[in-house]
Fold:
Amino acid sequence: MNEMITIIFICIGVLFNIFGCIGLIRLPDVYNRLQAATKCVTLGCCSILTGVLFHFGISGAGIKAIVAIPILFFTATVAAHALIRGTYRFGTPPDKRTVKDDYKEAVK
Amino acid sequence: MKYIAVFILSMVFWLLLTFSLTVPNLITGSVASALCSAFFARHYFSGVYKFIQPARYFWFMVYLAVFIVECIKANLDVAYRVLHPSMPIKPGIVKLKTTLKSDFARTLLANSITMTPGTITVDIIDDYFYIHWIYVRSEDPEEYTRMITGAFEKYIKRFAE
Structure:
């Protein structure tokens, strides 16, 4: 039973990581690529870690996996924020399809 | 008070990571936690009394459940946009006002926004969040504020303010 749950969680995780990578290639500019990179890759990794928890049960490795999940959440989101802000301040123009830009006045 | 809170938190963290209750491990952990709290505690936790209010833990659980559901929705949403042949995106950076006051609550809200469908927090200036949105569904400030923060703000206010 545990094997089954482990496999399901790890498969979901790998699938979402693949979606994230496809997004990195297909989306047009940095800002949209970061969307795919943060969301899909974070949930993918969390899902794999949950799979690890089910595989090892409540033991050293399993608890380490569950502790890693909140750390991953905080670091991934903060890194995404730092990257996207740095990119904007550096002056990378957004894609042509961008319809609205309220941040432009705030930076000046 | 602050120092004790940081000490307990880092000790719990250490015990979870090492996952053994032998005496050398406990001694190492308490020395490391004491050093941590001595150096860093004054930068954290404006109100330690918040840790001993049980209602906050209840709202935290509610928030966690909402957050997990939103997070899975976010992933399906991004997966749909990425895999769709014509890529239905309409990106933009919108500005919205927050009613949260404390730094911790704002950080948490910004992180939650980053993990929810199609939005990333770009910056926080004064009371305003600047959000990059992959598909701008509405131009009206009231409406998009409700769409983006509506799910979280009331819960975060209850346990982190």
About this structure: Chain B is about 60% helix and 10% strand.
